[in-house]
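Customer escalation, tier 2.

The customer says the design service returned an amino acid string that "doesn't look like it belongs to this structure." They asked us to rerun it and document both sides in this ticket. The original structure tokens are below, unchanged.
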């Protein structure tokens, strides 16, 4: 009996400490901006199909077509390196990411060489049997972990962990976010203490009244949760930021 009580107490303490640690990691009040002038590594997850279209439309507006010129992003200056993450076999998203980079470079009159495109296994294929999904998810987690740990330089002359991870779903992007959270939880190679891998989730414009499954899973764990319709603010448990339509 004493051993059982000890195990229960130990489990309770570990669970409480883990919950406290997770809350601190994702607390919006603890956000601190990166130092001005510091190189920023942006990772963008393209979810294929409509998700890719929305993401690229939002980025094009932020970089090129935003009418308030002063609020446009300086693509090559604000984000010194970009990593585009696509699902394996998604050739369309690969081509569209390359076209986006070349279009922006042409618009800015600069060369767009500071980016790479990486494919990870899909978390779940279309029409894939549910009983095989855990296996494919594990493959996706392993690939995402390898991707995030690929660049861990501690000097400013080399590529480090991504500073910001931007996604709008679906499954593969969700796995990427949870993998980054796991690495931050254990402060692997100082990623949490160095404020790396801050996560931003943008809910789809098509979601007007109800959050998507990805949104419901991520609303309490991402650093910023952005919605495009005011009625979704309450649906995200008070953590959502309504910024208007972005597409």
């Amino acid at each position: 009996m004493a051993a059982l009580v000890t195990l229960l107490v130990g489990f309770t303490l570990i669970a409480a400490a883990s919950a406290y640690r997770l809350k601190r990691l994702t607390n919006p009040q603890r956000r601190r901006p990166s130092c001005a002038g510091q190189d920023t590594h942006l990772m963008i997850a393209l979810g294929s199909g409509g998700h890719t279209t929305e993401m690229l439309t939002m980025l094009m507006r932020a970089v090129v077509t935003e009418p308030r010129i002063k609020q446009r992003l300086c693509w090559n200056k604000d984000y010194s390196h970009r990593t585009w993450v696509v699902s394996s076999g998604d050739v369309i998203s690969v081509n569209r990411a390359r076209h986006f980079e070349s279009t922006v470079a042409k618009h800015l009159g600069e060369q767009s060489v500071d980016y790479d495109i990486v494919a990870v296994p899909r978390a779940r294929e279309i029409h894939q049997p549910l009983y095989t999904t855990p296996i494919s998810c594990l493959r996706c987690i392993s690939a995402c972990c390898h991707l995030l740990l690929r660049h861990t330089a501690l000097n400013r002359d080399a590529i480090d962990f991504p500073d910001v991870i931007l996604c709008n779903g679906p499954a593969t992007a969700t796995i990427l976010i949870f993998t980054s959270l796991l690495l931050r939880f254990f402060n692997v190679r100082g990623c949490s203490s160095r404020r790396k891998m801050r996560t931003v989730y943008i809910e789809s414009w098509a979601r007007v009244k109800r959050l998507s499954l990805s949104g419901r899973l991520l609303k309490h764990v991402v650093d910023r949760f952005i919605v495009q319709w005011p009625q979704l603010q309450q649906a995200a448990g008070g953590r959502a930021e309504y910024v208007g339509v972005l597409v």
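Tier 2 assessment: The sequence is consistent with the input. The mean pLDDT is 85. The two ends are 60 Å apart (CA to CA). Sent an explanation to the customer and offered a walkthrough call.
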